[in-house]
Specification:
Elements: H1 16-45, E1 49-59, E2 62-71, E3 77-88, E4 93-100, E5 108-116, E6 124-137, H2 142-148, E7 149-153, E8 158-160
Parallel strand pairs: 1-7, 6-8
Antiparallel strand pairs: 1-2, 2-5, 3-4, 3-6
Length: about 160
């Protein structure tokens, strides 16, 4: 009967050059993790999604709102539904509105119009992005979308989150 051969070869000690290569690999890998950190964090957080309150104009007894959505550095969103509050010039909440801003194409800027009913534009002192109600797209969630949003205003009213 033939004798069984060992599955592993004879044990040898690594040469000093092999040990040196392994020692050098650890700092190089660590340096790669440190350098990739900000890029990886940006990738996880996602590209900024700028919402700009661009214009307010009278539309009967409502205030027509032009909201620019700048997704020029991000991936497409099937849905972006936001919860907005209009505050008067005294800082008192006047109207609450849920607005669907999607779909928002990949690397595109779009303008969405909606009305705050029953409030005159000069009475609006501030619009608050209260929350993101829905956000659907590539690896998007309500929380990640809210984190990505950077509000700005070119209108007479301020816009904040």
């Amino acid at each position: 009967m033939p004798s069984a051969l060992p599955l592993t070869g004879p044990k040898t000690r690594p040469t000093s050059s092999a040990r040196d290569q392994r020692r050098m690999a650890v700092p190089v890998v660590a340096l790669g993790v440190v350098l990739a950190g900000p890029a990886a964090a940006q990738e996880t957080k996602g590209a900024p999604l700028k919402l700009e309150l661009n214009r307010l104009e009278p539309a009967g007894d409502a205030c027509r709102t032009y909201l620019m959505v700048d997704n020029s550095r991000g991936t497409a969103l099937k849905s972006l539904k936001v919860d907005l509050f209009a505050f008067d010039t005294e800082g008192v909440a006047q109207k609450r509105l849920a607005v669907e801003l999607g779909p928002i194409p990949d690397r595109k800027t779009v303008v969405r119009l909606f009305d705050f009913p029953g409030i005159a534009c000069p009475k609006i002192g501030r619009v608050l992005l209260n929350d993101v109600l829905a956000c659907e797209g590539a690896q998007a969630s309500r929380e990640s979308c809210l984190e990505r949003i950077e509000p700005e205003s070119k209108a007479a009213a301020a816009f904040a989150r």
